[in-house]
Amino acid sequence: MASLKSRDDKRITDMQVRNLKGKISEPADKDQKRGFGTLLFERRPSGVVEAYFRQRVGGAEVWMKLGVYKGDSRSAGFTVAELRSKANHYAEIAAKHGDVKAYLAEQQASAEAERAKHQRLAEIAAARGSFADLFVDYIESRRNKATPGVVKELGRLFKTNMANPHPSIMQMKARDIRPDHILAILNPIWERGSKVQAERMRSFLVSAFNYGLTIESVVGRANAKVYGLELNPAAVVRVEKTSAPVTRALSDTELCQFWETIENTKGVGPVMAILFKFVIATGGQRIQNIIETTWDDYDLKAGTVRLIHRKGRGGQAMSRPHLVPLTARAIELMSRVKEINGDHAWPWTTHGEQPFVISSPTHAIADWVNSSHAVIDGVKVPGFSPRDLRRTCSQLMQRHGVLDVDSDLLQSHGQTGLVGLHYRNNPKAYLPEKWRTAKLFEKALAVALGEVKESSCNLNSNGETETQE
Predict the structure, then answer these.
(1) How many other CB atoms are found less than 10 A from the CB of residue 247?
(2) 3-state secondary structure (DSSP) of residue 331
(3) CA within 20 to 30 Å of 47's CA: 101, 117, 273, 453, which one?
(4) Which of 50, 84, 115 is the last residue of a domain?
(5) 437 in a structural domain
(6) 234 and 158 housed in the same domain
(7) Is the pLDDT of residue 425 over 70?
(8) Is residue 309 assigned to a domain?
(9) Does the pTM exceed 0.85?
(10) 343 & 453 share domain
(11) What percent of the chain clears pLDDT 70, i.e. is strictly above it?
């Protein structure tokens, strides 16, 4: 038997609503206190009973629809208890904040603003470039400033030292990269013995983050990527300097052994082997500058090759031409190369599609050092790099009496200031001096290679041989 409702209980029953003809209301407050709005039921002409929260605000009635009354289990809508619960909630708001409709509108506006804020933050986060984006962006920025070989080498280093071994780090936002991530990239390079490459890789990473720190402030920037960087995580990482490559130069015996056997070394192609000989025959020119030459840079009839030096921060903007005299030995080497690669744009290439990548000579010398050819009188020849051939030629000239200023001019070393400016404007201006030095070097090289006995020739200042009686 249903309990009887108290005489003071103003709550509306389900039967009252079901039999409702017009309107009926009760206090919205759960304790039936007045002044906090009312729960009102009203039957519409269609027969549907609708429930409202009604509140008087500033002398006017404000109605807020709560829902439709659910007359039976098969109908849509809410029970009296459910509609009363909604009204109770609104009454609590009225007790604390007064105008319920205004309060709810304010809350909705605040929630929409918060959602918009989170959406904007999410969009910003999505737009921020990853570590991989930053390094690729940096590589692209170097295309008009560095040589094609340098750009290609950057791409190779990115693939072999970053993208392939560390995909998860590459996917991180650039702004979230910390020094420990940089160490995770550099340590494996160092541990496999590539200490010079670890140092170069660290230098490239520092440059890439410096680029990212400033690029977003450039007016007219075409790339829309943003990085939001606040620091350069690579700048605080240090790579221990290696001193061995700084002083390494081949002795005459080592130079002769290398010259005579490099073309017979397994893994070293014929053009690569001739490249090393050509570097030596021209007095130790920078191997990268030679690799970048095309056949148009060679005038074998005049006996010259035109190199373009882009050493330093200026890159291509500060490039300067350097005419190098070609001795009979150097021309003979180029004639051999022409028989192999005469149909290609570059002399120093394997397949003709592009010149050697800058790392190829290093690998080729490593192949020679690890071969049986690099053993003299049972003693293993210490390792060296392509750059050490330049130092070897410089010291060879020094030992045979070539003045430092002439040696520097032939190797285009330290040609800066007013001298460098004049040299860049007129690359032929110093060709006579270079020819005299080239002849002196050729005689010294012939001695080092055992082609001429040192006691049988004396080199005068004109590079002429004086035979001793």
Answers:
(1) 8
(2) helix
(3) 101
(4) 115
(5) yes
(6) yes
(7) no
(8) yes
(9) no
(10) yes
(11) 85
* Residue position matching structure tokens 């490459």: 197
Phi and psi at residue 221, to the nearest 5°:
-65, 130
Contact 279, 390 (CB under 8 A): yes
> 3-class SS at 43?
strand
Dist. CA 354–CA 1, nearest whole Å: 98
Indicate the residue among 215, 242, 269 that finishes a domain: 242
Check: CB of residue 322 under 8 Å from CB of residue 412.
yes
Q: What is the DSSP string of 258-291?
A: HHHHGGG-TT--HHHHHHHHHHHHTTS--HHHHH
User: 352 and 270 in one domain?
Assistant: yes
Residue 411 token pair? 């190797």
Q: What is the DSSP string of 148-189?
A: HHHHHHHHHHHIIIIITT-HHHHHSBGGG--HHHHHHHHHHH
Looking at residue 429, its pLDDT comes to: 79
**349-370: pLDDT as tens digits:** 998 889 998 889 999 999 999 9
Instruction: Find out whether 104 and 93 touch, Cβ atoms under 8 Å.
Output: yes
As given in the structure block, the two tokens for residue 346 are: 């570059």
Q: Does one domain contain both 205 and 288? A: no
